[in-house]
Amino acid sequence: MTRARPVVHGPTVDEQTRCIHYRTSLDVIAIRFACCGEYHPCHLCHEETADHSSRPWPAGSRGELAILCGVCWTEMRIDEYVAAEDCPWCGAAFNPGCALHHPMYFE
């Protein structure tokens, strides 16, 4: 049985989850927000399209599937993502600058 492809909410600009805010070749992830369980490409997309404030994943949530690689569409755990420079499944490079935003997403 094949899982349905997750929906990515917000102003995406391509099929690899890039958005109007972050669209370099390395901006290929979406984040499932703890507050609503919906994927958005970034915190700004969530802010612009959700009807509520975001909140970070609690510290004990590192095992949650909350990151989506926009290249291969594989969901990964938070701990896998924060430890990776690229997708463990397809090798797509991730933007190292995203680590600056981790406190917005993960406690």
TrEMBL record:
Pfam families: zf-CHY. InterPro entries: Mito_Tim_assembly_helper, UCP017292, Znf_CHY, Znf_CHY_sf. Residues 12-92 form the CHY-type domain. PROSITE patterns: ZF_CHY. Keywords: Metal-binding, Zinc, Zinc-finger. The keyword Zinc applies. Transmembrane segments: none annotated. PANTHER family: HELPER OF TIM PROTEIN 13, ZINC FINGER PROTEIN. This is CHY zinc finger protein. It comes from Brachybacterium tyrofermentans.
